[in-house]
Structure to design on (721 residues):
């Protein structure tokens, strides 16, 4: 609040009037920042905002651990090891990941990004024209640290503990201001060690019930990794009010692992090609080193009529080098194979875009913009088995590039006190190019996506509102899915095939409808229900078949377009303070959500012909308890995804076991500037189960996998200077 005193008094002096400043005038300036719920409610397109308070609450090591608690969000892989983040139960690739509104470079991993480097996360259920519409399931936009508090230096030291292995993590945020120049230097360094245990049981059985093979494999892996993340941000305000922001971003990590495998077969079958004895023991060592750098620049110019022009540019560079050596032995100790794999990848990228925003009257805003992006990959991979190439192109230089061009226009308008609307249209053109020693493949596609969102604020119902959306979106094949360099499986088989791309893939196209009801409570709380239906054309599925590679035959898994699919679901959410309903109870905040999903794929016979990797449902339940009379908060969260089965094709079935994860934490605030947080993630540490069944030529190949999971303890000290 700012008070200005101005006194004015009229007096007569020798017949003349003189003016003295003596009148009191009060001017009030409010600069309150919108809460996460305010940002959510005021957005016409439906989204969930996760701010610093929620990011800090549970003391998570990764952003993925936070996102898995949100409505309709699931993660692939076993608990405690992370995996790709998925919205609405859809598999990998359907959810768009952005960093500061832009596509991150290849090699970016949300699981390796520390929450300390993030200001907030926006989870958008429906696409908007401003961002790429490559978001059939939705978009997760990660906004890196951007606030400046010249007097606050944040220092956070975390010590993780898993199976007796200590994982330190140090994060520092140093902000400041020199005149019109603002800066914040943020960075973190980490080191961790992990040990994994897994068991794979493979059974081959003919249609007449005769078991042809039983193979039991036990794998043990030790892994160590170190890394550094730097996310500084520099901002300068020019004399005319324009603003220039520069934000570098660096992620660098190095890891090494050793694994030991024991394999038993009944009966012991010779390799049908080489006539060698089966592998009974294997030892592997691998190293990887990766660095990803990106530099973003953003320039804003405001016109006198409050219009605004934003220009942004970005350059990126990344490298990934890895090598592995696997030695395989027979039961009698004879060395059978020495398999080496060396992979060197270089990525570069360039992006440029702009956005012009102008008001039309008092109730409408119009925006138009464009995006250009070019990325290129150079890769050389040498895979040798006893000195001989494992695939035809081993050692060849691969070049692949993607060029994207997009233009859009969108408008937001307040039609009345109750109605607000959004309409936009976006055109995107994508060109891919890949070349090897023996062929060149070029592919070009374009997509037009009209989008409509509307919000109806219900009269006499407080802040309650109804959301409606009609959207078009798409899913472009990943670059690795359109280039045919295979990923080699050391123990190649129908349930462990090599993986390759398909240069002829077309993008999936989707049309969708969303309807949501949001009930905002008097305190900081919300209850909502969201319904959605998605229709997808040219669905991409991966198929496994036996193919000839040189003089050998190998099992290969590659993607193809198969047809049409329908996905639908309901997402329920409730966040509230328990005292709002029961004033006499302790100060407990409740966080809970439940999602139910259905889908069907036309060209695959049922039952269970759902979208790949889509569970039938998922749920979360969390509590935060502020202890009376003490600066102590206790809390926890229960995350549940039941077991499910997916019919991938008429001959292949995948199964995923139940996932139950319990996380708890305790936070003690010694002072506003010093906190200690103790957290335990994955308390139950249940084994993670998965299965793969494939039937070819009257033989059923079945593999069941069991992987151990572990509880991770985390002690975090947070200090503001």
């Amino acid at each position: 609040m700012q008070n200005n005193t101005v006194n004015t008094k009229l007096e007569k002096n020798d017949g003349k009037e003189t003016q003295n400043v003596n009148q009191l005038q009060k001017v009030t300036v409010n600069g309150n920042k919108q809460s996460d719920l305010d940002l959510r409610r005021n957005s016409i397109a439906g989204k969930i905002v996760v701010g610093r308070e929620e990011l800090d609450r549970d003391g998570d090591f990764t952003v993925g651990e936070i996102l898995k608690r949100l409505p309709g969000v699931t993660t692939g892989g076993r608990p405690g090891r992370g995996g790709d983040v998925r919205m609405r139960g859809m598999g990998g690739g359907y959810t768009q990941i952005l960093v500061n509104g832009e596509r991150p470079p290849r090699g970016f991993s949300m699981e390796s990004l520390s929450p300390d480097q993030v200001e907030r996360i926006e989870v958008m259920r429906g696409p908007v024209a401003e961002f790429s519409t490559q978001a059939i399931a939705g978009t997760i936009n990660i906004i890196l640290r951007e606030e400046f508090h010249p007097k606050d230096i944040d220092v956070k030291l975390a010590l993780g503990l898993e199976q007796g292995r200590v994982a330190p993590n140090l994060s520092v945020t140093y902000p400041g201001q020199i005149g019109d120049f603002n800066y914040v230097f943020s960075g973190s360094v980490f080191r961790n060690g992990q040990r994994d245990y897994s068991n794979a049981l493979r059974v081959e059985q003919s249609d007449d019930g005769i078991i042809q093979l039983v193979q039991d494999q036990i794998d043990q892996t030790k892994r160590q990794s170190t890394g550094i993340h730097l996310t500084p941000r520099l901002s300068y305000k020019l004399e005319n009010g324009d603003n220039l922001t520069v934000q570098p971003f660096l992620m660098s990590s190095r890891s090494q692992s050793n694994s030991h495998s024991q394999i038993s077969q009944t009966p012991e079958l010779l390799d049908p090609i080489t006539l060698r004895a089966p592998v009974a023991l294997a030892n592997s060592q691998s190293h990887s080193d990766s660095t990803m750098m990106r530099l973003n620049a953003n320039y804003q110019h405001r016109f006198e009529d409050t219009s605004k022009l934003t220009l942004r540019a970005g350059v990126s560079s990344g490298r990934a080098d890895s090598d592995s050596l696997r030695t395989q032995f027979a039961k009698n100790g004879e060395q059978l194979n020495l398999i080496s794999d060396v992979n060197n990848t270089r990525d570069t990228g360039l992006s440029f875009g702009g956005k012009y925003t102008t008001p039309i009257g008092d109730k409408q805003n119009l925006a138009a913009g464009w995006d250009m992006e070019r990325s290129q990959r150079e890769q050389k991979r040498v895979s040798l088995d006893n000195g001989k190439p494992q695939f035809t192109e081993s050692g060849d230089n691969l070049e692949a590039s993607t060029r994207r061009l997009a233009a859009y226009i969108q408008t937001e308008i307040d039609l009345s006190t109750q109605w607000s609307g959004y309409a936009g249209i976006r055109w995107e053109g994508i060109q891919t190019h890949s070349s090897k020693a023996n062929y060149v493949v070029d592919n070009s596609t374009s997509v037009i996506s009209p989008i409509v969102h509307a919000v109806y604020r219900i009269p006499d119902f407080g802040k309650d509102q109804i959301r409606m959306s009609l959207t078009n979106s798409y899913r472009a094949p990943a670059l690795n899915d359109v280039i045919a360099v295979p990923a080699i499986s050391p123990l190649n088989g129908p349930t462990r095939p090599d993986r390759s791309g398909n240069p002829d893939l077309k993008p999936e196209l989707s049309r969708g409808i969303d309807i949501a009801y949001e009930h905002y409570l008097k305190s900081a709380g919300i209850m909502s229900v969201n319904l959605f239906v998605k229709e997808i054309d040219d669905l991409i599925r991966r198929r496994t078949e036996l193919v000839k590679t040189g003089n050998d035959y190998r099992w290969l898994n590659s993607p193809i377009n198969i047809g049409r699919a329908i996905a639908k679901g309901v997402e329920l959410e409730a966040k509230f303070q328990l005292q709002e309903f029961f004033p006499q109870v302790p100060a407990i905040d409740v966080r809970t959500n439940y999602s139910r999903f259905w889908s069907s794929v036309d060209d695959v016979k049922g039952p269970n012909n759902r979208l790949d990797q889509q569970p039938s449902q998922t749920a979360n339940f969390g509590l935060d308890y502020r202890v009376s009379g003490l600066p102590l908060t206790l809390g926890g969260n229960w995350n549940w995804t039941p077991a499910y089965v997916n019919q991938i094709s008429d001959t292949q079935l995948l199964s995923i076991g139940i996932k139950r994860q319990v996380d708890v934490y305790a936070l003690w605030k010694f002072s506003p500037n010093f906190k200690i947080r103790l957290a335990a993630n994955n308390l139950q540490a249940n084994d993670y189960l998965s299965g793969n069944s494939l039937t070819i030529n009257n033989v059923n190949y079945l593999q069941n996998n069991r992987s151990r999971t572990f509880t991770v303890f985390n002690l975090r000290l947070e200090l503001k200077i």
